[in-house]
Amino acid sequence: MTVMQTTAETLGPNATKDATEHATKDATGTDICSAPPRCHSRPDGQDRYTISEVVAFTGLTAHTLRWYERIGLMPHIDRSHTGQRRYSNRDLDWLDFVGKLRKTGMPVADMVRYAEMVREGESTYLDRRELLEATRRDVLTRIAELQETVAVLDLKIGFYGDAGRTREGERNA
Questions:
Q1: H or E element, residue 102
Q2: What is the DSSP letter of 60?
Q3: DSSP 35
Q4: pLDDT digits (tens, 9 = 90+) for 125-164
Q5: What distance in Å separates the CA atoms of residue 21 and residue 141, rounded to the nearest whole number?
Q6: Which residues have C-beta within 8 Å of that of residue 102, sequence separation ≥ 6?
Q7: Which of 35, 91, 111, 149 maximizes the CB count within 10 A of its CB?
Q8: Contacts of 99 (CB under 8 A, 6+ apart)
């Protein structure tokens, strides 16, 4: 069960919508994609991580992180004086959000477009919202399709369970 499902069950039918609207906002109501870094429970409260540390935190590969940067999905990543990438907590927040977008099935091109709009600033809020709303509609459609599939599976499982009990009863008679 996901957090969104638990929230929806606990708080009612509008909870998922409300949670979605606030999912990318911090306690002040600021969009985390453009906000200062949030406080994380990461080692020593640091805010600079090597690519290998980010790999350990996120489960992404170093190749994927470099690719995200190359295609414009990641903002500019700071570098140390030796040229090593130094990721911030804000970068980790962004990667977490990108991971959520990936789970929705959003095409990479749309994720890059979204990232570009974030970098363009507040003037793109409406376009960003429209993109996220379209993605949400797609996800809800897929969820409905999956629920229908689960219902069919439940029917089949019930059928085979009943058939198994009938056959077992015939053998014991």
A1: helix 89-104
A2: -
A3: S
A4: 999 999 999 999 999 999 999 999 999 999 999 999 887 7
A5: 18
A6: 111
A7: 91
A8: 58
